[in-house]
């Protein structure tokens, strides 16, 4: 393996890697704009120039490959390459490039949505000149819509072409292009073929400056006000890794979080804007029990006790309905509680969409169907007919918050039941038909594990605090079980549930939240 | 030197010199016949031995370039004839295409044979419509006479030639910009590596050669490498087409041996300067070369290495002459404007820097200049094209050499004619 | 960007033989982009939105990629121009030999500034960069033809002779 000296560090590298990749991997900061690990290297921004011993010109580190050199040609008899990233020449060069990039920039950081996460702001602070020497009139252009959700601020654009390459290489849709040339170049889309593909939102993520703005987020908040938490998208069974940005009780945006085993660097717009669905939902804030046509509020102790009593009464004639929207732990605990889980509510499906670089949106638009199948044993798809044929008199349903219209066969079933317990966060038609309603958590409040359709288990972490009187779903189920069977175990936390689950299902054994971490684990 | 006989332009004044029958009557395509009996490596070796250096601007040895084509690949190989001729001050390829298209075509077929290519292209600038038609005719003739197509002249060798028109972009003369353009894209030069000889057109090995370079090939084959090498300086030998334009009495294309004195070109071949005016400055190698003052110009030979010593270059051998009536600030702005218009715009320094230069020079010309502008021009050009230190090579910092091509000439104007720039400053500011 | 703001009609190459030949000449389809655009512009006078779509279809690329190309090259026009394009080279050698006077003269003669078209739609005056004919400066290209080394008088005669 070639030996590289980069500033004072000696690094052994794989032949064929670039200086920039090596620097990034070893925590050496070389500034860059046009390079993006998922995109073809174009080497056009010139920000990543470094000096390489023995070469007369500065080299772009994004396209300079390290390889073994002949023993006679090693630098100092030892190194295959010697690189300077901090010397006078390089430092001066960065200043120059930044000066060029900022010539026509409005310097409007105080009102820019990217402020706080802008590489132009960052780098000019770290590497740039204090003031501009440009005395000419600036090139000024109005903002334009590139698609229904994406606006471009041309004055901030540094023409790194990441967005264009994204549409050509990743989404394969090619809507974006560079218009004109030279000093007049600008990013554009055809009016009658706007940037409206299901991956469009990613361009705002990969724009290194604040030039591409998602209209969904524009001027809604400032990044430093927002709390950023890692999470998993729950809008399909791919399970893209995301960061959730929120303030108090409100989510402001989702961005993709890198995970090479799942989503690479990207996510789709279904998931990106999906969180809005939960904003206007009528939440259930207290446990409730039916009283004629309406409900009475209960406190938790009463609710748990009532629930346990109902189950106790009908015993063998009760069953659980799990949900691919819920975590493995909740589904598992429902199984423990009910002895039998019959099936799950009708899943949400859509079109399976695959992009050229293999990015995929699954036809299964629920996050955890694989987990349900792994944990809940044999489930019948059409459990309504089974219910009819068997003598089931009580149901405990983990509702998924989807507001389904209850069709007649369901109505018949419900009418036949002695009791129906619905654990839900939203007042769905199903919840409205229940005898007892237990308030669980909404998708971005939940914690637990989910298993994507490729069999990767991921840690779903809460992004928002729980609302009202609601409780984590797994905890509710445990409390009911404790009330029902005095001897059953009390799980102090999710970790204990996971452990117990592993004891029962070998391919889930040896798992812990810690091991799953931010990148998930492939199940064996 | 006076006994030099033109080689490439020997017949251009004769009637019907553009036709196949004429070309054949003066020995045309005999080099090809000879080549088809040689093996490709021998052909390449002959061209290597001749020390023929590229006539498109960079002066890279042609035979060595051909040698870079990988031998062990299944990919098709492509030859592209660079007929984009857009460098200001250069108009020699146009002459060759108009007058002796078959000479160039024969050179192409030989080059293609040497590198194992079966489809080749002529990339001709879009504005050259008449030349395009001329080439179409020549190519048709060649197909009819089995000089192109299948089993050329009874050999087993097949070759097609496609004429491809550009559409108005100087940067498409740069070989990787050209390749992108040929692929149906904007002419954004590619970052190297990979070099075109390894991954060029459609990711396949590709050689790009200039019209004049290719036109030399049949003669090298017919008369031998050592004949070629005996013309002019050994390290960069051969006949060369010098273009002279600007303020001279008799502008035009003159075929001379490499290494001719610039003075002779201007004052003898091109008949000196009109109205007895004095020489002021010269671009020796197209507008991308640094200008020479009159004094420097009178004392230099048109040789690759000698011009590099003078901190400029032979480039495309396009000599532009400026006399004492020429306003150097206006001339500098003219050149800067050309480059700003032609910058492809992908590299930060080139895109932004060319725009900046034009804005600043325009302000200066309009009387709004300040003394620090003049120093800024040095800084901006250095920041686009790199610190030019000839002892260490150039410090270019852009994807393609266009950055240097702007920086050198613009900088040289200010360096060599600073007084004229100062004279544009508003009076009180000069004093300050 | 429907260049002329009118609803798009499908563009059809009248010289379909030529179009087929172009497509067959290259190892891939996309390489035919520039020649197809030239062919289409010759037919239509400028590049319309319908041409963009048609070329995209034949070359199997996105219309945006065709527009990218069209906008890069100076010889493709996105608006209708006069019947005769008067393209005056303004780069150094021509400028040193009176090209600026050409522009002034045409401007005076027809009242059109560079970029403008005469009201009768007969001429459009364009300033262009180096035409590669510096030895015969000043050069004016009218449509496809170069006219080299003209005096102002000769230019005048030439312009007047255009029907
Ligand atoms: C900005 C720029 C413009 C160029 N224009 C031309 C041109 O018009 N014609 C040409 O033959 N070479 C041109 N070149 C040089 C080509 O890149 C390439 O070196 C040449 O075509 C190789 O052919 P040769 O080795 O036969 O000279 C240009 C280079 C640059 C950087
Ligand atoms: S909009 Fe952003 S990503 Fe696109 S070219 Fe401009 S700076 Fe780069
Ligand atoms: S692909 Fe699926 S998991 Fe990924 S963002 Fe889209 S909906 Fe969410
Ligand atoms: S140097 Fe200029 S012309 Fe060359 S690639 Fe960079 S921006 Fe384009
Ligand atoms: S990151 Fe290397 S040139 Fe832009």
> Given the structure, what is the number of helices of chain C?
7
Structural class of chain B: alpha/beta
Q: CATH homologous superfamily of the largest domain in chain C, by name?
A: Glutaredoxin
Oligomer: heterotrimer
| Major pleated sheet of chain B | 5 strands, mixed
Number of strands of chain B: 11
Give the integer mean of the pLDDT values of chain C: 95
How much β-strand is present in the residues of chain B? Answer: 5-15%
Helical amount of chain B: 40-55%
Low-confidence runs of chain C: none
| Shape annotation of chain B | globular
Order of helices and strands of chain B: HHHHEHHEHEHEHHEEHEEHHEHHHEEHHH
**Spatial separation of the terminal alpha carbons of chain B:** 54 Å
Report the sheet-strand fraction of chain C. 5-15%
CATH level 1 name of the largest domain in chain C: Alpha Beta
Cα-atom radius of gyration of chain B: 22 Å
Overall residue-averaged pLDDT value of chain B: 95
* Helix content range of chain C: 40-55%
Radius of gyration of chain C: 18 Å
Explain the overall architecture:
The complex is a heterotrimer of chains A (524), B (432) and C (163). Chain A has three domains: 3-99, Roll (Ubiquitin-like (UB roll)), CATH 3.10.20.740; 106-114 and 133-219, Alpha-Beta Plaits (2-Layer Sandwich); 288-522, Rossmann fold, CATH 3.40.50.740. Chain A contains 15 helices and 25 strands. Chain A has helices spanning 19-25, 88-102, 119-127, 162-170, 202-206, 269-274, 300-314, 328-338, 369-375, 383-389, 408-416, 429-432, 473-484, 494-504, 513-516; strands spanning 3-6, 9-12, 49-52, 59-60, 81-84, 144-145, 150-152, 176-179, 186-189, 212-214, 227-232, 241-247, 250-256, 288-291, 294-297, 318-322, 341-344, 353-354, 360-361, 394-398, 419-424, 436-439, 448-451, 456-460, 521-522. In chain A, α8 (328-338) packs parallel to α13 (473-484). The longest helix of chain A has 15 residues, at 88-102. The radius of gyration of chain A is 28 Å and the shape is elongated. The two termini of chain A are 33 Å apart. By secondary structure, chain B is of the alpha/beta class. Chain B contains 19 helices and eleven strands. In chain B, strands 6-5-9-7-8 form a five-stranded mixed sheet, sandwiched between helices. Chain B has a four-stranded parallel sheet with strand order 3-2-1-4, sandwiched between helices. Chain B is globular. Chain C has two domains: 16-72, NADH-quinone oxidoreductase subunit E (Arc Repressor Mutant, subunit A); 84-160, Glutaredoxin (3-Layer(aba) Sandwich). Chain C has helices at residues 16-25, 33-44, 49-59, 63-72, 92-95, 99-110, 152-161, and strands at 84-89, 123-128, 139-142, 145-148. A four-stranded mixed sheet of chain C has the order 2-1-3-4, with helices on one face. Classes of the chains: A alpha+beta (524), B alpha/beta (432), C alpha+beta (163). Chains in contact: A-B, A-C, B-C. Chains B and C meet through β3, β5, β9 and α14 of B and α2, α4 and α5 of C. The structure holds flavin mononucleotide (FMN), iron/sulfur cluster (3 copies) and FE2/S2 (inorganic) cluster. The site of one iron/sulfur cluster has 14 residues of chain B, from α15 and α17.
